[in-house]
Amino acid sequence: MAMDAGEIERMICEGIPGAKVTITDLRGDGDHYAALVVSEAFEGLPRVRQHQMVYEALKGKMGDDLHALALQTSVPKD
Is-contact 16 8, C-beta < 8 A? Predict the structure, then answer.
């Protein structure tokens, strides 16, 4: 069962409070998404840990309900 963009955004925002999340459906099939996640919580963390935080927020949905996620993370720019 595919996830919709709103559900992905909601889960990430719940798992990383204050994050700004932009989700794009890459193929229009509800199965291949790109996510841009900007959060102060990423400050000082290596990119790998930032991505782990997003995957943790998705609570095991990655690879099951969510087939593919092209992920970009960053801290807010002043």
Answer: no
pLDDT in tens, 43-65: 999 999 999 999 999 987 777 77
Helices 5-15, 47-57: axis angle to 10 degrees equals: 110
- Which CATH topology does 5-74 take? GMP Synthetase; Chain A, domain 3 (3.30.300)
Give SS3 for 22.
strand
Q: What does the domain layout of the chain look like in residue ranges? A: 5-74
Enclosing H/E stretch for 71: strand 68-74
Spatial contact of 66 and 3, defined as CB atoms under 8 Å apart = yes
pTM here is: 0.89
